[in-house]
């Protein structure tokens, strides 16, 4: 009987040991986990490499540009014109040197804010083969007509680093360009060989009693946004290739695009660049008259950097 009781006690102790879970040991170096929770150790932080800002990515700069645009703009009547005669004219003359300037400042890491400007003008003569109406003036067929025009563009551009990010020690930059343009185009016409005085030298007058003149001129201007891309490649620390293109269009209204590419060499605070530039404009075709043109040529630029 006594042996039977001892055997039953041993069996009960063994069964209790099998059903009781082992007590969890607290993790080394920390507080014990609550029942049912799992402790996860965070991975070590990746090493951080500082972004390297290369010349042209800090401080501010002032620059000048020069190029000799090729091709001539055209003048024509718009969709809402009441003119029944032709108004299609190619502006004459070889454009003069397009003079430009730029002020820029670094904004944060690898971003920049730029304000730039350029202007160009040209004049020349042609003989029309048909009657023309240019602005408010009519010119009979066979008239020697002189033309002149002036194109101006003011641009604000925010150059935002898009790739790669972080830059670290990489030498390539891809930026998105967010711009606003103010474009102004003035055109003028005259007939210098048509008489403005009679045989006695007295001024001829028009139907309103004003001295007769064959001059006609007008200006078209507009504001437009522009969106584009810019790429920079540092071939060496002081040798850099830049290229950018941006534009915007409103169908049947205005169009603007601007593109350039330069390879730049820097010595101290002075940088000299050589490359090419193109600029396209079209004023609103909804008015009585509009102008359009694409100017392009080789270009040079010089910049002074504050650092």
Envelope shape:
elongated
One letter per element, helices H and strands E, the order comes to: HEEEEEEEEEEEEEE
What is the domain tally?
1
Low-confidence stretches: none
- For the record, the CATH class is Mainly Beta
Major beta-sheet overview: 10 strands, antiparallel, barrel
Report the sheet-strand fraction.
over 45%
Q: Helicity, in percent?
A: under 10%
User: What is the rounded Rg?
Assistant: 37 Å
CATH topology: Lipocalin
- In what order do the strands lie side by side in the largest sheet? 1-4-5-8-9-10-11-12-13-14
Give a count of the beta strands, DSSP E runs of length 2 or more: 14
Structural class: mainly beta
**How many helices?**
1
- Give the terminus-to-terminus CA distance: 103 Å
CATH architecture: Beta Barrel
Task: Give structural notes.
- This protein is mainly beta.
- It has a single domain (67-305), classed as Lipocalin (Beta Barrel).
- 6% of the residues lie in helices and 52% in strands.
- The protein has one helix and 14 strands; from the N terminus they run αββββββββββββββ.
- A ten-stranded antiparallel barrel has the order 1-4-5-8-9-10-11-12-13-14. It has a two-stranded antiparallel sheet with strand order 6-7.
- A hairpin with a 2-residue loop joins strand 12 and strand 13 (270-282).
- The mean pLDDT is 88.
């Amino acid at each position: 009987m006594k042996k039977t009781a001892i055997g039953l006690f041993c069996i009960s102790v063994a069964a209790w040991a099998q059903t009781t879970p082992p007590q969890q040991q607290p993790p080394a170096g920390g507080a014990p986990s609550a029942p049912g929770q799992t402790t996860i150790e965070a991975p070590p932080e990746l090493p951080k490499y500082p972004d390297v800002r290369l010349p042209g990515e800090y401080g501010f700069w002032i620059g000048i540009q020069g190029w000799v645009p090729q091709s001539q703009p055209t003048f024509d009547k718009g969709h809402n014109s009441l003119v029944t005669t032709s108004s299609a004219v190619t502006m004459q003359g070889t454009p003069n040197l397009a003079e430009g300037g730029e002020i820029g400042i670094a904004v944060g890491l690898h971003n920049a804010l730029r304000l730039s400007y350029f202007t160009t003008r040209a004049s020349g003569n042609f003989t029309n083969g048909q009657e023309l109406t240019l602005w408010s003036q009519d010119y009979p067929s066979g008239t020697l007509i002189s033309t002149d025009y002036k194109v101006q563009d003011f641009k604000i551009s925010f150059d935002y680093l898009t790739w790669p990010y972080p830059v670290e020690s990489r030498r390539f930059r891809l930026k998105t360009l967010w711009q606003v343009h103010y474009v102004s185009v003035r055109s003028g016409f005259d007939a210098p060989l048509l008489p403005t005085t009679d045989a006695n030298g007295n001024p001829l007058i028009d139907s309103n009693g004003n001295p007769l003149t064959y001059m006609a001129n007008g200006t078209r201007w507009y504001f437009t946004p522009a969106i584009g891309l810019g790429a920079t490649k540092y071939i060496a620390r002081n040798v850099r290739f830049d290229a950018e293109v941006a534009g915007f269009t409103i169908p049947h209204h205005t169009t603007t695009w601007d593109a350039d590419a330069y390879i730049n060499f820097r010595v101290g605070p002075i940088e000299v660049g050589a490359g090419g530039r193109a600029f396209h404009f079209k004023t609103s075709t909804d008015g009585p008259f509009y102008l359009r043109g694409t100017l392009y040529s080789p270009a040079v630029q010089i910049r002074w950097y504050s650092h």
